[in-house]
Specification:
Structural class: mainly alpha
Length: 76
């Protein structure tokens, strides 16, 4: 996820939603409805923190756009 700021447990909630879609527990269209309702915690399970990590911090847009991921993050 790329952003200029995140709320507490926001990325874990987004991962929970993506995982639910991947496992067939919800449809992609449900994500927009959940975000519009602003009641994420009632509909999406928050992923545990294990396995999630901060990979890179960009200090300006040029640095972000120049970045290329050559291999999966666990091999950096």
């Amino acid at each position: 996820f790329v952003g200029n700021g995140f709320l507490y447990k926001m990325v874990r909630g987004l991962m929970g939603a993506a995982t639910s879609v991947g496992l067939g527990r919800m449809e992609v269209e449900d994500i927009a409805r959940i975000l519009a309702s602003r009641q994420r915690t009632a509909h999406v399970e928050t992923c545990p923190p294990q396995g999630l990590f901060l990979m890179k911090v960009f200090y300006d847009d040029a640095e972000m756009h120049a970045f290329q991921l050559d291999k999966p993050p666990m091999f950096y």
